[in-house]
Amino acid sequence: MAKVIPRPQLSFWENIYFVEIFKGLATTWGHAQKNLIKGDFPTRNYPDELPSLPRDYRARHRLMKRPDGTPRCVACFMCSTACPARCINIVAEESDRLDIEKRPAKFEIDLGAERIVAADRGEERIAIEIKTFASDSPITDYHAALGQFLNYRLALELNNIDRSLYLAIPTLIYEAFFQKEFLKISVERYQIKLIVYEPVSEVIEKWIN
């Protein structure tokens, strides 16, 4: 049954709005005076000044799990359909539980999907393939990143685009995964230029040629 909420009765002064307008102006002027005196401006000059975001920031992409360890996702494809960057890839399969029809056989989130960034580094013109390595298998992510990197580099060569291609990877992945002997040989063999970045603070920590 719908709950009826009565409309509040306004006084004469509230109905003519003059008093409320002056109250709003007084609040605005109070904040402005406080900022001018203390010099503590809450406005941030983004993107020149980047915010310091915690690692558990709720806007970060993550796949939640049930208490038994299975993913909560029911492969409805709503998130992948609504995603403007098309960075979510889901492959569904039939669930073995009676209360759940489908589950994801494959769930990938790539914040750098369908995007290659062009920039300048001093006098060097560069292109950057950004990868997050967000899935549970770093080696699978590396295979996909390597294939895209080689194809991007070939496309730059065929179109006579004078840009050096870099592969951008998170700091944690570089320290924990890219130090393996196989990865070092692969990076050297395919002449992959790396950018190591911190995803939370969005700071580039290393350029590796």
Question: Would you mind describing this structure in some detail?
Answer:
There is one protein chain. This protein is an alpha/beta fold and 209 residues long. Helix content is 32%, strand content 22%. The chain has helices at residues 12-16, 18-38, 78-82, 138-158, 171-176, 181-189, and strands at 88-94, 102-109, 116-121, 124-130, 164-170, 193-198, 203-208. A five-stranded mixed β-sheet has the order 3-4-5-6-7. A hairpin with a 7-residue loop joins strand 1 (88-94) and strand 2. The chain starts with 11 loop residues before the first helix and ends with a strand. The mean pLDDT is 81.
List keywords for this structure.
alpha/beta, 6 helices, five-stranded mixed sheet, Trna Endonuclease, Chain: A, domain 1, two-stranded antiparallel sheet
- CATH fold type of the domain at 116-208: Trna Endonuclease, Chain: A, domain 1
The number of distinct helices, counting runs of at least 4 residues, comes to: 6
The end-to-end distance, rounded to whole angstroms, is 67 Å
Oligomer: single chain
Order of helices and strands: HHHEEEEHEHHEE
Instruction: Tell me which CATH architecture of the domain at 116-208 applies here.
Output: 3-Layer(aba) Sandwich
Secondary structure class reads: alpha/beta
Beta content comes to 15-25%
Unreliable residue stretches: none
What is the CA-based Rg, rounded?
25 Å
Number of strands: 7
